[in-house]
Structures are given as C-alpha cells and as structure tokens.
Amino acid sequence: MAIDADMKDTRAKGSLAIRLKPAKDIEGYLASVPAPERAVLEKLRRTIRAAAPKAIEKIAYGMPAFYDPRPLVAFAAFKDHCSFFPMSVATMRAFRAELKPYDTAKGTIHFTVDRPLPAAVVKRIVLARIRENEERQRERELKKRR
To answer: What are residue 34's phi and psi, to 5 degrees?
Structure first.
C-alpha cells in the first residue's frame, strides 16, 4: 500500500535497532533497553495496558507486542528513536493529524525520550485498534455463516 502524501516516510538511513539480546518477555526486553528509553517505553506500556486490560503481552518479531487475540500494537527501542506500531495502515491514516508532529512511516510512529507520544493519543489509537479488530472479527464470522 502506498503511504499518504501527508505522512512522512522516515525509513531509515542508519536507524539501526539497538542491539538487544533476544527477550523471552517484555520485562526482559525492557531490562536491556538504556534507562532513558526504558522509562518512556514503560510509560507507553502502562498506557497500552490501561486502554487494553484484556490484551495479551508477548514478544513478537523481537519486540513487545499486545494481542487481543489478534495483533493490536507493539513498540520498540532503536538507536536514534523509539517506535510505536499501531499495526494498521487504516489507523495510521485516521490519526494522521494528531501524528503530524512525529516522524511516521507506513506502520510506525517514531518518537524520542525528549518528545514522547502523548498518553491520550496512544490510548485513542489502542482503542481504535481494538474496535478495528472487533469489526474484522465480526466480518469473518459473517462470512463463515454464508
């Protein structure tokens, strides 16, 4: 899918992932992240957990992710930034105005320790993803009945 003209594409010249040991769980992942980034990611995790208390946490593709039971959102630390992954191009488009201050690509929002994502925006994105997953599940169930 093409990226909307409004969305900045920051795929990366030199933004290599922080070299982390493979983690078995989110606590292990966060323990290996440098302290400033860890604090921001821990707050992001709490915000996601508050918005999606029934979501299952796990490591997917080497990064912390939340499922409900389908993929919901994920986050990760990189060399020059942190990323929040809404796992939905539609959600990225729906929030493009609120995400303008941040570098975005097709499925990620980049932020830094100095400019973290506002908890209110994260919460709205997570709730939108839950609704999107629920709608997709309803559509699947309708197709099965036909």
So the answer is: -55, 150
Token pair for 80? 């020059």
Domains and CATH numbers, the chain: 26-145 (3.90.1150.200)
Torsion angle, alpha carbons of 127, 129, 131, 135, to 10: 180
pTM of the model: 0.84
Q: How far apart are alpha carbons 55 and 105 in whole angstroms?
A: 25
Edge-to-edge strands, sheet with 63-67: 56-60, 63-67, 71-77, 82-85, 109-111, 103-104
Q: Give the C-alpha separation, 48 to 127, whole Å.
A: 9
Confidence of residue 146 (pLDDT cuts 50, 70, 90): confident
In whole angstroms, give the CA distance from residue 54 to residue 31. Answer: 24
Answer whether 91's CB lies under 8 Å from 125's CB: yes
Q: Is 93 exposed, middle or buried (0-12, 13-18, 19+ CB in 10 A)?
A: middle
